[in-house]
Amino acid sequence: MSHRYPIRLSRKIFLILFSLGLMVSLTGYVVIKRNRVHHLTIAAGSKQGESYIFSQAMAQVVAKYNPKIQIEVLETKGSEENIKLLEDQKVQLATAQADIPALPSARIVSKLFPDMFQLVVQANSGIQQVSDLKGKRIGLPPKGGGQYLSFLFVAEHYRLEETDFFSFAVSEKETDEAFRNNQVDAVFRVRPPGNQSILDLVQNRGGRLVPIDQAEAMKIKQPTLDAGFIPKGAYQGSPAIPATDLPTVAVPRILLAHQKVDYNLIQEITSILYERRQDLAAVMPEASYISPPSVLVGTILPIHPGAQAYYDREKPSFLQENAEWLGLLLSIALLIGSWVWQLKSQLDKKQKNQGDNYNQEILMLMKQIECCQDLGSLEKIRHQLFSKFESVVNALDYDQITPESFQSFTFTWEAAIAALRDRRSTLMAQPTPISKSQ
């Protein structure tokens, strides 16, 4: 028998070691998860653009307030490339113009700032409106960017085809240089008012801003667009450039995330965007325009669940929002419940009383059995007992008595049957009386 003890001891040691190993593994997992540094990449457009500048500011502020989230800023050609990189999961975040169609995996995190369609022309170009671009040389952002597609949309609206003008789709720096050297007649950009590159063109290179009207009409085809204006004096106060509020087309710049990016990461980034907005605005004033996405954006893209969780943080719960109605329903339910309970109590009492009555009737028959002196009377009592049993079974079927009352009755009835049998045996054992005539 002694050989069993080492086996039992080995099992106990195994269980102890297994438990310790499991505890160490779980503890290690929690520690690693809490201290893990998450590396994300954001596709942000050209280095001269506000999206890139904003992305750099966001990366710095996020790292400052949560060092476990490190964001790398990637230079790209613009919105269209950003969205493609996001769909291919080569980046986790992206900035984009809201008028550029996003792909299925993209989710909105936040609106960032409003961009404006801005058309700068040479002072002597004779261009007074968009339709005057026909036959002119136009400096455009690189193909594959949102700005390039936005210009084609505007040109199409004014019934201009690509063959109607000479386009130079190169970098912003190269376009500015071509404008300075009179190699292009106009430059098109989608930028916030006050953009440094446009400021240099209108202040130092003789550039002139041209209105882009009919924004409301363009919105019919592209709901993400809106009517806007470049404020008077946005590029110079005296003399004011532009001289009046200049009508143009506005489009939101938005921050996107891939749908598979961790819920908690996006919630934390969104929290920092809004709660540390002042830090962002110190680097880039346009950050003050950050606002939650809404149907006003005109896009059908859903909001990322992590961002939605931040936006709903102060939203009342279902119970809080419907407290009055729920209170009323609860009061009604309690009243109905009380009424049902009273009815049930009355029914239970009635059933119990009925069961007690049946038991009393059996007890009376038992007394008759004790006093019975002949078998004929005893047989009548037997018939009454079985008739009463049949009545009680029917009463149980029609819920006139409770199962408990039936069990009690059965016990009493069986006692009566036993008493009847005993009384019959006693009467049958008595000698038959002899008549006097014999």
Enumerate the spans where pLDDT stays under 50 for 5 or more consecutive residues: none
Largest sheet properties: 10 strands, mixed
SSE order, as H and E? HEHEHEEEHEHEHEHEEEEHHHHHHH
Q: What percent of residues adopt helix (DSSP H or I)?
A: 40-55%
% residues in beta strands? 15-25%
Give the integer mean of the pLDDT values. Answer: 87
CA(first)-CA(last) distance:
90 Å
Q: Which class best fits the helix and strand makeup?
A: alpha/beta
Determine Rg (CA atoms, Å): 45 Å
Overall morphology: elongated
Total strands: the figure is 12
- Number of separate helices: 14
Can you offer a commentary on this structure?
There is one protein chain. This protein is 51% helix and 17% strand. It is built from 14 helices and twelve strands. The strands form two sheets. Strands 1, 2, 3, 4, 5, 6, 7, 8, 9 and 12 form a ten-stranded mixed beta sheet that branches. A two-stranded antiparallel sheet has the order 10-11. Strand 5 (137-140), helix 4 and strand 6 form a beta-alpha-beta unit. Helix 12 (323-371) packs parallel to helix 14 and helix 13 packs antiparallel against helix 14 (403-429). The mean pLDDT is 87.
